[in-house]
Amino acid sequence: MKKRCNPVSQKRAPNKKKIKSLEPKADRDLKKVFNMIGTPEPAPFVPDPFQLEAVEAISTSDCLVTAPTGAGKTWIAETATKTFIDQGKRVWYATPLKALTNSIYAQFVKCFGKDKVGILTGDIKENPDAPLIIGTTEILRNQLYDSMHTGEDLGADFIILDEAHFLGDTERGVVWEEIMIYLPVRIPLLMLSATIGNPGHISAWLSDIRNKPCHVVETEDRPVPLFPMFLHPSGTLYPLLRQQEGKKKTVLHKGVTEFLKAKPRPQISLPGKLPDFSEILKVLDNFNLLPAIFFLKSRADCDQAVKLCTGEIIARDPEKKAKLSHRMDELLSTNEHLARHGQRQILEHTATASHHSGQLPGWKVVVETLMSEGLLDAMFATSTVAAGVNFPARSVVILNSDRFNGTDFQSLTASEFQQMTGRAGRRGMDKIGFAVAIPGRFMDLNHTARMVSAPSLDVRSQIKINFSMVLNLLLSNSPDKIRLLLENSFASHMVTQGKKGKYARTAFGLGLEFLWDDFTIHLDFLKEQGFVSENDTLTEDGVWAANLRMDAPLLVAQSLRLGLLPERDPIMLAAVMASFVSEKEFDDESLVRRMLPKRLTKQFLTLRRGLKPFASELLQQGFDAPFLYLQPAAVMASWAADEPWTAVVGRTAYAEGDLARLILRTGENLRQLAGVRDTFPTIAKTAREAMDMILKEPVVNGQFVPKSEEQTTTQNHTVQE
Q: Are 105 and 119 in contact (CB under 8 A)?
């Protein structure tokens, strides 16, 4: 990981004297802006021209809509969906995130009724034969695999891809690209996004490979205007930007430039410490800028932030406080564990909450519900909350101009900044929204100012070859046909784009030769291992292995072939499968081994020894072969054996949310094992039993736990939170 450095504009030595309290003030230039704060007058809904244009386009072509967050893209989806359902047709609405899928599901149930809407997210499966399915993109992609294999038409007449900029996501963009390549031409495609810089390129590519027009609908108009501000450590709010006299260009406001020039520069907190958020909330409340979403750099900061809030604001509104307490009782009445959540008391006392991926999904839903209902003054979240989940606020507060991308810290991109600030301003509730920059060690105010008007980034092809893709394509295609499919990729279109295509030519080759070489390398390995025959067709092992759409499919397939998985012990099977999906690294093997039951230790060591030659071959040829750690196995064994949740969490390095994610992903992989029942009936039955043992509260809501029998027809790859 790269060492995190101060932004260039922030290199002066910090002043260690902290300003103990903030005095709420506002620059006089903000007077007119603050006068705009308020709720719009109720008025009949009138669709915007871009919305009508998109609905009209869908009747004759594919359509790509790029519009700011909150502009009304979902109205387009609802209106088009109603048209198809009224005609007796079926609709598939795909999203990249389970949380967003759940949110869209709830919204569409209100529109169309529960009997007409189904949901598929891997761990949730309800009403799968409904005319409208809300699900994750991986499930849709896998249904396309199945359709190609069986020769049966995909059971949909209209596809909606929400958050379409995920086409450029490094890890998961390949799934989106595959959907667009494999989708039958007869099925119209609607794509929705707020942050695509090159919609014309995507449209031209789709028009070319689908032999039908793809209409682009663009608007930059936000339904709720955004105003960026700067909070000085003294407590004074300034506009972040000002218009240069006689010019269109904007520059930093003089109050901001004076702050940057100050020697010593005032600080809002001690070095390495978070600011006093109770003081910041008082400033925002003084100018009617709440509720607010604060974007912080880490889970720990979010959890610490709520402890720094005093609750003075909610204390002045006893009616709201009583409503908050009552609503909490309602939301938590059926979940004893969440009712005892460690942050509940803080939330009810301060009307603030922490929200991040280390928390249980159920608790995050509670926080999201309270925020969307206007019962919270502030939510402290990591940047992941910005990606597609719909609970905006009047203001967003940004403390860092960079973001950890999983490897190192990088400056916020225009698209990431737009995702965050897209939460500022509630349509129908606010006339104006605010983005407030807080100074600090990792806040580059010049960079933040540039991001306010920076265009969205271009989306690039992220297509890549993996074993699951090769196996599934070989179910129904020869290598020559697969090559034609790859030539239909967005990568193929990008290499022809002059200067803009330099990245693609470097990554994939001028004629996609690098991509094809990668396919050939995967194919040759599958032949060596007996999954593919010399005439390039799947062997019997290859056919059932293609259905293992999971983490490390070849390692699991080899385990099945060698009889290394526990056939009749669901607890041990759940434990072993947890090791295949774990992404964490551990160095406490000896300690864990002493704590484990002997049967698990024996099973685990047998599995490791049996897989070692195969894993070595994978590594030698440049493929991934994850190390199988004992700790996730130990944790899963305890959970499957009905050990209390608090005890399981207490003995592991996993946060609650991480452990829940491990359990859900393990459940998904067990579902894949259950899907090979024709070849391995005994272990398939055990996998279904293991699923029932681990998919339980508080990890999943009881009403959504899928039944073990015959729920395996919908295959899905790992779905990230």
A: yes
Give the ranges where 291-359 is alpha helix by DSSP (H).
Answer: 299-307, 312-315, 318-332, 336-339, 344-350
CB proximity list for 520: less than 8 A, separation 6 or greater: none
β-strand pairing of 352-355 with 433-437? unpaired
696 in Cβ contact with 607 (< 8 Å):
no
Contact predicate 659/582, CB 8 Å: no
DSSP letter at 658 equals H
3-class SS at 119?
Answer: strand
Structure tokens at 708: 């073990």
Q: Which amino acid is at 42?
A: P
CA distances from 143 to 120, 125, 139, 208, 406 (A): 11, 14, 6, 24, 30
**What pLDDT, on the 0 to 100 scale, is given for residue 97?**
83
The CATH number of the structural domain formed by 547-721 is: 1.10.3380.30
Quick one: pLDDT at residue 703?
37
Question: CB count, 10 Å around CB of 127?
Answer: 16
Question: Considering the entire predicted model, what is its pTM?
Answer: 0.90
The pLDDT value recorded for residue 427 is 84
Identify the CA nearest to 63 among candidates 190, 201, 231: 190
SS3 track for 469-526: HHHHHHCCCCHHHHHHHHHCCHHHHHCCCHHHHHHHHHHHCCCCHHHHHHHHHHHHHH
Q: Which CATH number fits domain 49-218: 3.40.50.300, 1.10.10.10, 1.10.260.40, 3.40.1170.60?
A: 3.40.50.300
DSSP sequence for 579-638: HHH-------HHHHHHHS-HHHHHHHHHHHHHHHHHHHHHHHTT-------HHHHHHHHH
- The DSSP symbol for 255 reads H
- The low-confidence residues of the chain, meaning pLDDT below 50, are 1-3, 5-16, 18, 702-721
What's the pLDDT at 232? 96
Compute the C-alpha angle 322/323/328, nearest 5°.
100
Cβ partners under 8 Å of residue 514, min gap 6: 507, 508
| Sheet bearing 132-136, strands edge to edge | 125-126, 117-120, 132-136, 91-95, 158-161, 189-193, 62-66, 214-218
Tell me: domain 460-546, CATH 1.25.40, correct? no
User: Given this model, what pLDDT does residue 124 score?
Assistant: 76
Question: H or E segment at 84?
Answer: helix 73-86
Residue located via tokens 């609405």:
93
Which tokens belong to 279?
Answer: 């003081």
Please check whether residue 101 is in contact with residue 227, taking contact to mean a CB–CB distance below 8 angstroms: no
Backbone angles phi, psi at 300, to 5 degrees: -60, -40
Q: Are 386 and 416 in contact (CB under 8 A)?
A: yes
Which residues, 6 or more positions from 690, have their beta carbon under 8 angstroms from its beta carbon?
A: 570, 571, 573, 574, 577, 640, 670
